Amino acid sequence: DPDVEPQPRGGFRCCLCGISAANRATLWDHLSGKRHRKLQDLRDQRRDQERRSVFVSGFSRGTSDQELAAYFGAFGEVVAVVRDKEKGAFAIVELREASSCQKVLEEPHHHLDGHRLRVRPREQKDFVPGRRNRHRELLGSEKLEQALCQVDSVDAQMQRLVELLELSEAERSLRQLLVTLFQEVFTEFFPGCSVIPFGSSVNGFDTSGCDLDLLLDLEATRSFQASSQPSGSFSDSLLPDVDLSSLPVADLLELVAAVLRRCVPGVCRVRAVPSARRPVVKFCHKESALAGDISIDNRLALLNTHFLRLCADADARVRPLVLSVRLWARRQHLAGNPDGGGPLLTNYALTLLVLFFLQTRTPPVLPTVSRLGELAGE
Description:
5-stranded antiparallel beta sheet, alpha+beta, 45% helix, 14 helices, Beta Polymerase, domain 2, Alpha-Beta Plaits, globular, 5-stranded mixed beta sheet
């Protein structure tokens, strides 16, 4: 398989998905799985689009998409016209058939409204599924090793690793904007609700491209609904009569998914997963390829997040050690994405193991559970 390369220490790596497999059986499970096939299909679609598209510039700034579609429609059916968002100075014109695209390229001169168009084949780009795959490429790249070798101590290497892997300010800002947007939209449907981020985005052990985990807290909404009208409806909401207190989890998730699809701009690939161990609604932010989950009333996750944040802030050595152990475990094929198959530990499990190690040193680096209880008091 051209997407697979053997690893120096054994095992294999799927370059398309950024997944490591410890042996041939695990590799086969991954290659025959839905995720790999889905990315293969997506890559084939992108390459087909590129073969059927041309890059166009030289038209006047006032030229509309419809005018461009009408001009190139003389060579064959036009599927889409996509303009650059910054200045509108160029466009990608996608045709239905590759033969129509070839006709466009064979025409020596193109003119529209007195302007000579510059037309060339669309650039063939390497397929990169999203930010999380670029993050995996960093973890397995020589660039990372070179960056770590430029500092002169293990402590400095570990700190440098944190700087290389943690969320950028732009990523943090985007996540905060999405949380604010979700809060505004869901409040219209569920008055009094709260949208709260938890997990790796906010627990102090974030890495670039990590999922955005959100809790949709409906406790205040249910109380508000119960006290508003005997029928269970609440007039300030955009929802019809829906009794949230008796609605099955699967139906509630489908309701949340419907709000996401219809009312939140820039969100795609929305699907409810009621059969998961922790039922969620999955989504993706189209522009950034940021993936996320929304769970309902998952309060334990908030407490776990607060605890990890407390540990991350308690000692400056905690974050570097956790991220270093995670990187080591991934390189040893002990950890990674469970979707890829294989006997893998999750990042959460690895983090808890490191925290327990630090709690049991003499003297302890982190306070033990009993000591935390003493500090908290009644």
